[in-house]
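Two proteins, back to back. First:
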Amino acid sequence: MKEYFAFQWHITDECDQRCKHCYIFSEDNCKKPEAMTWNQMQKTFENCLDFCRTFGRLPYFYITGGDPILHPDFWKLLSLFKEHEIPFTILGNPFHLNTQVCQKLKFYGCQKYQLSLDGMRKTHDWFRKPGSFDCTLEKIQCIKEAGIRSVIMTTVSGKNIREVPDIIDTVVKYGADVFAFARYCPTSEEKEIGITPLEYRELLDLCYKKFRKYEDEGCSTYFNRKDHLWTLYEYEEGIFKIPEDAQEGMIYGGCNCGNCHMTILPTGDIYACRRVQNSKVGNVLKDRISDVWVCRMEEYRDYGKFEKCSRCELLAWCRGCPAVAAGKDGNFYGVDPQCWKEV
């Protein structure tokens, strides 16, 4: 088991945007935003710490929303983190960031602040709202000057796949500390990502060569190979090799669902993965997380159920993205629609 356990905690749905690929408002753009009360946030926090004490893990929080800064008790929550010396990352928007806010985030212990770029200006602003592209790039330096690592994340779909190379060049130009991309997860079966397996492999190949070029030039941006299909690509290219001392039955990498990650929504609902629409396993305001982990999340660790991956030699390191598979037809154990490997 990994030393740290990650809680992706959505404290509010309140947001300045209504992004076209947002999981919260994807099926109901007029949905009333939910938000936790301060008492509920305290109860959730203690429940998370209880879980980590029980299983000997160190807590790490990804605080998000909506835009978490819009929650009226946002800074009180950060005070709680500072009091307990617990590290955290913020996943948010750029609109309410300035020098003073970023310095305050650093004071409370924020390690990273993640922003999104989902295309170049025209495409990104179509996904999100006019002005978002320029505002995002502007705030990278603001975050960095406060001593916080700036992270840029791209959600890839058929709409923006051709723009990913230009996004990479842009984040390098603006000095982002980390760049990563992951695929769009459809929120209902009539939606799809719009990328064929070979198109996605071509993207990984193009990006790998671009990453290596920048790394060889001494670029300071860290390129996080977040998507698990990177493992398949690097295996085929001879970059990754299965260790000779690998133990049968051990899981060494791949999707963290059911392993070292869970999501908590503003309603208190616990999801095995936020991107898997039917993965609710409990409610943090009613259930002890430790009990949920043992009794209701075991199925997400049943790796023999994966229809394709269980027959692949990379089962312990890859498994593609079950969330993308589930978004296609509701089957968490189904075939990753962008996996190109024959097994």
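And the second protein:
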Amino acid sequence: MTNPIDLLRERGFVQEITDEAGLRKLLEAERVTFYVGFDPTASSLHIGNLVGMMAMAWLQRSGHRPVALAGGGTGRIGDPSGRDDERELLDEDAIRSNLRRIKEQLSRVVDVSDPDKGLMVDNYEWLGQMGFVEVLRDVGKHFSVNQMISREAVRRRLEEREQGISFTEFSYQLLQAYDFAHLYETYGCRLQGGGSDQWGNVTAGVDLTRRLHGAEVFGLSWPLLERSDGRKFSKSTGSAVWLAADETSPYAYYQWFFNTPDADVGRFLRIFTYLDLGDVADLVAQTEQDPSGRAAQKSLAREATRIMHGDDGLAAAERSSRILFGDEPFTELDDQTLMDAFDGAPAVTLPKADLESGLGLLEFMVQVGAAGSNGEARRLVNQGGVRLNNARVDDATQQLGSGDLASKTTLVLRVGKKRYFLARFV
């Protein structure tokens, strides 16, 4: 039987392990409880978090028990890793809302419905009960300030004399390390996983658990999600692809994976799908032989979208893609899909009452910025260069009404081959 470490390494989930020989032996000898932490400082997880979720899913499929730790306590502090500035502190209602959404998103990938199979916990349950003196006495005494300062995330912030780092964020690593000790004591947790940017926090937790409980525990990290061109995807860099459908639509999610460069598609198939590695190799070979066919990208987009958005979400994404990239008129799409599909196009908000009472096409073109005057708009229509919701417009006197909407609120205007304009009627 394949050792879970080999499985994870083959699929791209292993960068560092604190004691690989010891962890191999443990995973072969018993059912291991392990945990991965998730930060609730945004209303949705993103595909960077999905790397960890998929690693958890593979370990769970190998017979081990996952604990998804939602950082309701540490999220009130803020992790300085990967940051050049201080995080904004969220209010209680925002954190509770984020935690609910995180559990819903995690549940699509990791089974946390039964504590025997897997569970989700909130570290505010124990960190919120600890007093300042207790933290300093029971946790802080085990940490060297010299080592804490040497961490890259802390050192970089200290070198920025104007920004610096608050004691709040500086102390974050104490709390995350204590999480491991608590989960070991409460659930028998023996392994913590995390992205490579968390390696300092992971090893601190391993060390603290050993000091407090004399326990042999382990840490494992996976590479941060990057493309072959070095581009990273995270909320810190402002380039996140969100897992929540109301923040990144299934269509946009599908298209992001479909547009994966050839150099990355094999790696992404291994990370973001459950496809057999032999099938992955076949798909990559097909794409190398026929790049224009994009066989690997099509499978990646389909499988990744199905995992996160289900069969219905996949069907909606494929239908939207057929409409938006085909010749038929845009109809029965949703507002978010249109905003995602035409991200970067000029967009205006207009009164819905104007549309309901009848809005002249030429006036509409001026309002959205497609023409400087009614006369210019008329010339564009007469030249055959105007499309409304992908349908060619020939009548410059046309009156627009609610029946012309491509979605519940949105109209899409195209002038020429590439100039798009969106109007949302509210």
